[in-house]
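Comment thread on ticket #2218

A.B. wrote:
> Attaching the input chain for the structure job we discussed in standup.
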Amino acid sequence: MGSFTRKEHHFLSELGLAPRNLGCFVNGSWKGNGPVASSRNPTNNQVIAEVNEASIQDYDEGMNACVDAAKIWMQVPAPKRGEIVRQIGDALRAKLHHLGRLVSLEMGKILPEGIGEVQEIIDMCDYAVGLSRQLNGSIIPSERPNHMMMEVWNPLGIVGVITAFNFPCAVLGWNACIALVCGNCVVWKGAPTTPLITIATTKIIAGVLEKNNLPGAIFTAFCGDAMVGKAIACDARIPLVSFTGSTKVGLTVQRNVNDRFGKCLLELSGNNAIIVMDDADIQLAVRSVLFAAVGTAGQRCTTCRRLLLHESIYQTVVDQLVEVYKQVKIGDPLEKGTLLGPLHTPAAKENFTRGIQVIKSQGGKILVGGFHIESEGNFVEPTIVEISPSAPVVKEELFGPVLYVMKFQTLKEAIEINNSVPQGLSSSIFTRRPEIIFKWIGPLGSDCGIVNVNIPTNGAEIGGAFGGEKATGGGREAGSDSWKQYMRRATCTINYGSELPLAQGINFG
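C.D. wrote:
> Ran it. Output below, let me know if you need it in another format.
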């Protein structure tokens, strides 16, 4: 396999990576009989390492072993499954800084965000350990004498997890930690452009399974393209598929899963708004908008894309934002002080440039930014655009650091603009007035799955259920009672008497 020649890549060997890697973990061993792909650093588009992707034979072998492993894993008591997930959390803690650095190197987000992403999986492990002793059903009073009625939750068997480049390992954590304690095996297809993160994360999990003499196939992973994604979506042995990505691809996944009566957990696009009322704390709002719009170079599904400003404070907020945007340090995400790293791929940079042309053609006025940066990397300027809320481009998700600003007069109007897009993931309002706060979070307020007050649209905590409505797909991951999606509910009625009273008082013969 050789060793890394570039100094900045030396840490990768600590994660078990080499210049050439096998990209499939099937039946407890590494292989890869499909095409060879290159992982590139978005800061300079140079190759970091190569990966042998999955072939359809690798997929079949992996799934056959996974089906067998599922029969073993679902019989392990839930608290013992929790203990395995606890050990996975500890193994990730030991590699936190190396894995976080890899996220920055391969995906392009700044180092504090890369480390934060891995911390999120560690936190999910902790959450899931506690959950492993609380997968409780309920006892329901029966209307029939000498009958007992209860709900029992059983594992689904296998959960497919298809993740996106922007959170190349955290989204796996949201799903896999809970799926595993619920008694499911996991089949993971990582994003095709972040294969090293897929391999490094899988090696950590595989090490824990091996140490506990458990079948490696409990966690099966593939690096690969849409072929593997389609195989997962169409595979009747996978009762639940969790997919993160675009609405367009999500619809295709949903159709394939529906055709075989499987279940889908979809986390699709967002088009999130922050509303700033006339009584808002302006300083707090400006800091929040900066993080929400510029963080991860605008490549979060929870990124703030629309800023709705009350007309009385419009100019004040715009002026302050333009000033802070001019001070944003753009550069290598691994360097201290960088706030804006590159977009993930050269194609994303082209999309940005095309998007700016469309914005201008629809009457958008660039207040700051608007250009890509001439360099070997995928860098663009953080951009603020003054535009009408009715411009068609505002209804779409341009995956980059572009913020649309627009003004409103009344709360009713602001809520209507917030709710006027197809997506329904995250939303936030800045105000100090209780009557506005409670209207905003109530039935006639925001139509999103995440409804915030005086904080940004991004940076969700794992304790709550994460996900959105409408074109965002309707799935929920991480906390609250999201675990119920990874299990099947059985309503059990037990007759411990000798009579046969029927429900609803029916007399039959």
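A.B. wrote:
> Thanks. Noting for the ticket: The first strand starts at residue 20 and ends at 22.
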